[in-house]
Design brief:
The chain is an all-alpha fold and about 230 residues long. Helices cover about 75% and strands about 0% of the residues. Among the domains are: about 120 residues, no CATH class; about 45 residues, no CATH class.
Length: about 230
């Protein structure tokens, strides 16, 4: 009987240890999601910066790539669910944070695209028009399409929000530092031109997502290798 109790206790300890190790695994994401979004957003921001600064066009809206990136992101999420890994309550909460972030980002895109044309139509119905007037008289007045000044600053601030929440909950310092630096870039963007805002947005995507994503990926692969060697 003593030997049987000893074996039972040992088995119980092994089960508990196994459960703890599985639970710890939830802290390490694959890193694919942050790498994907960091790459796409930084690329779109930088291309837009070049187009605005050097006044050229590539023939299509580069930000469509961000929308297309949703498809592989959904596939990644579905594949990770099929792995059957243990999910904690905090993981569900973070999923909700990122869902709200995505919805908010979509709403901002709709706002940016809809408001100028709607405003133009509304003021035209009232019988007046916005004009660009050169104070030095070097050029004649030109019709001006309404726009939101330094609008990309809002994107920069929004990028930092879910990143900081994730970093604090997961205790992942690269995301915490990236988010804090991004809030600093938001303040800076309030005092720069719109095309410079795009460059700051590029840096924000690198700090918030791409660099932390690469670090997460390395940690995930190292953990996976260590488990395979056990």
């Amino acid at each position: 009987m003593p030997n049987q109790n000893q074996i039972t206790e040992k088995e119980s300890l092994e089960i508990i240890t196994s459960m703890i190790q599985k639970a710890k695994g939830t802290y390490y994401e694959t890193g694919i999601g942050p790498i994907l979004w960091g790459s796409v957003v930084s690329f779109a921001s930088f291309v837009t910066f070049l187009q605005m600064k050097y006044e050229f066009t590539i023939g299509f809206d580069v930000w469509l790539l961000v929308l297309f990136a949703i498809i592989p992101q959904i596939m990644i999420s579905m594949r990770e669910k099929k792995t059957g890994r243990i999910k904690k309550y905090e993981d569900d909460a973070l999923d909700t944070v990122w869902l709200v972030f995505g919805i908010s980002l979509f709403c901002l895109i709709v706002y940016r695209n809809a408001v100028p044309s709607v405003t133009t139509r509304l003021i035209a119905a009232e019988g007046w028009q916005m004009m660009k007037h050169y104070t030095d008289g070097s050029k004649p007045d030109e019709p001006l399409i309404p726009f939101v000044p330094s609008f990309y600053s809002i994107y920069i601030m929004l990028y930092a929000f879910p990143t900081l929440v994730t970093g604090l909950v997961k205790k992942f310092r690269p995301m915490i530092y990236g988010a804090i630096l991004s809030y600093g870039l938001f303040v800076m963007s309030c005092f720069t031109t719109s095309w410079n805002d795009m460059l700051l947005g590029t840096i924000t995507a690198l700090l918030c997502w791409l660099i932390p994503g690469i670090l997460l990926r390395r940690k995930y692969l190292a953990q996976k290798t260590a488990k395979a060697n056990v």
